[in-house]
Amino acid sequence: MRPTVRTIASGLLAAFLAAGSSSALAPAAAADPGVSDTEIVLGGTHPFSGPASAYGNIGKGIGAYFDYLNDHGGINGRKIKWIDKDDGYSPPQAVQLVHQLVEQEHVFVVFDTLGTAVNTAIRPYLNQQSVPQLFVATGATTWGKDYKQYPWTIGWQPDYQAESILYAQDVLREHPKAKIGVIYQNDDYGEDMNAGLKKGLGSHQNLIVKMASYETSDPNVSSQIATLKGAGCDTVMIFATPKFAIQSMVAIAQQSWHPLIYLNNVANAIPYMRAVMKAAGPTAANGIITTYYLKDPANHTRYASDAGMKLYNEIMTKYLPSGDKDDGNYLYGISIAYTMADVLRRAGKDLTRKKVMDIASNLTEKDNPWVYPGVVIRTSPTFRFPITQMIMAKWLSTDWSPTGVLADTRALTMAATK
Amino acid sequence: MPVAFAIAIVAVLPWLVPTFVVFDLMFVGSYAIAILGLVILTGMNGQISLGHGAFMALGGYVVAVLAHAAGWPYWASIPIAAVACGAFGLLFGLIALRLAGVYLALATFSLAVATPSFLKHYKSITGGFGGMSLQGVSAPAGIPLDAQRWLYYVIWAVTGLAFLASALLVRGKFGRALRALRDNPIAAVSFGVNPYVYKTLAFGWSAVLAGVAGALFAIPTAYVSPDTFSFALSITLLIGAVLGGIGTFWGALVGGAVIEFLPFVAQQVNAAAPSVVYGVALILVMLFVPNGVVGGVLGLVRRVRSAPPKTT
Prior knowledge:
The complex is a heterodimer. Chain A has helices at 2-24, 56-71, 91-103, 116-128, 142-145, 160-174, 188-201, 222-230, 242-254, 270-280, 307-319, 328-347, 353-360, 410-416, and strands spanning 39-46, 79-86, 109-111, 133-134, 180-185, 208-214, 235-239, 260-263, 289-292, 364-365, 377-378, 389-396, 399-408. Chain A is α/β, with parallel strands linked by helices. Chain A folds into 2 domains: 28-158 and 304-387, 3-Layer(aba) Sandwich (Rossmann fold), CATH 3.40.50; 160-292 and 412-416, Rossmann fold (3-Layer(aba) Sandwich). In chain A, 52% of the residues are buried. Chain B is an all-alpha fold. Chain B has helices at residues 2-16, 19-44, 52-70, 74-96, 101-121, 123-126, 147-171, 173-183, 185-190, 195-221, 231-244, 249-269, 274-288, 292-305, and strands at 132-133, 223-224. Chain B has a two-stranded antiparallel sheet. Chain B is globular. The two termini of chain B are 16 Å apart. The model of chain B has no long low-confidence stretch (mean pLDDT 88). The interface between A and B is large, with 53 and 54 residues.
């Protein structure tokens, strides 16, 4: 028995050493990690597998933009090397991968890690290591709010609470006697949306008649919709991710119910609306209200002559030929990569992490080609919510039609995060 | 002798590999302990659990809650996690007595599925969806080790203790009773083995191990959330047990290494579809070494020497 087990043990040793040796040969850290004369190394993680794998396309969009950029001269003479890992939407997996990105790949910054739990998990480590955690792909308020404790972390997209505050204000303005029903995802996302709705309603919270939640493991949400209908609601807030938002809209139509619907931004891409109309009839989506802050690549008529959208199509055709151009996740990735590249460009030839962080938190970017026209990406050292502008829109048979002017939630967000 | 060899490997490894691999190796220790629980429960006693991720969650949250609510140091909360999980495991073991085979698998699986919702619901204790962050660990004053290696040695010391305690436990009467109940329950009972006592104890001890594993999982991650202990974790543990070899303690160690490193290797092979690579690897192992890596190696050695090995 003994030699047998010894064989196993030596096998183990060999396996361990083999696992480690490839990385042991990695070059020693330079004075400025991740920056050489010819290259800037950026690292990120996305869910390419698991329950949220649709968001993996954001990472692919980022890669496509950096490829495009490298073919057009890079940034101040340096090319970008983009290392993107699969975290499967799992916080512990992301923690291990980020250790690997920082300690093995020696990335200059960690960019666009996705998901609230994932980013919460890696934030203490990155801040302790003084590695910038730039433009995280989640709209929780903590990314903008807690900069004193975590100075190396910053978000990008509008915070969720600001979005639902806008819906609340619209209700108070247009339908002050509404009976509101809410369907929401039972997680941090739904919780944030609900908090914003309540803040926005202020002393009129009694307008909320019924709240119904679902778990992402639920097969469908028609019983929740029936509950809202049964409670006598005439206005429905859909705070749900795409699959469940589509189910909600279809269930409302199938139950011959005609409430006013507010649909959250994360589920308003045109392909989803087409799916609703296909299942529930061509007029089922009419009158639904939502908000926007990016251009929708599936809206072929509105942006037919838009320079940014032409560039988007060009980048997609050349660098991601297999990708569906109508998928807004690619556009999100390309747009956020533009901001990342912009910050690196402004930081100039002498790149330091400190300098990049200073610029990211003192930014005015007016020329991002893929945000909704007029949206300015703006931060200051004490206000770290880069995108605060959104446009409300109404669905008219084939397309979202903007209503009113760009709303800026900056003041709201400032007040709400005090 | 092989044990001494293994200890020597564990001792020198952090000085041979890069720091992030040292970090990964901590999770190997944690996984190995949880899988050891399955080796004892499933391999030796024939009870299938698809819910050990839930016990890991309990262990991890005990550490986090004690640190948050009472300011306990991480090392002091590990035994509490073990006791809490042991108590819960004994309770669940009493239920498990009435179920066998696929029914027990389903009952334990429901535990794994319910755990994230449960953690989300009691947010005043658990921090809800957002989870809880833990303090980073550093070496005590006077010990010339960096934080990473210090924590590595702490985790592997606990791993060693868990393996030692389990080895002592199953060495004598207890282990024989477990195996007898698995292989021929009627004969075992007629020889005076009380199936209720032994099956419940096996479940309890297995839960203790999973709880310790959960604690050791939470400490280096420095963060717990419902997503940390998804139901997929329970299945991953069983995969590790089967891949490593569910029949031996060494299988738990190999299984821990496999489930820690296989996802990374899969990403290296094909970044676009790591889960496909993972799945193919699983099928290949099941086809060619159905007894797991350790079982396969043992079989190979056996064939080479063409002499029947002594039974343990």
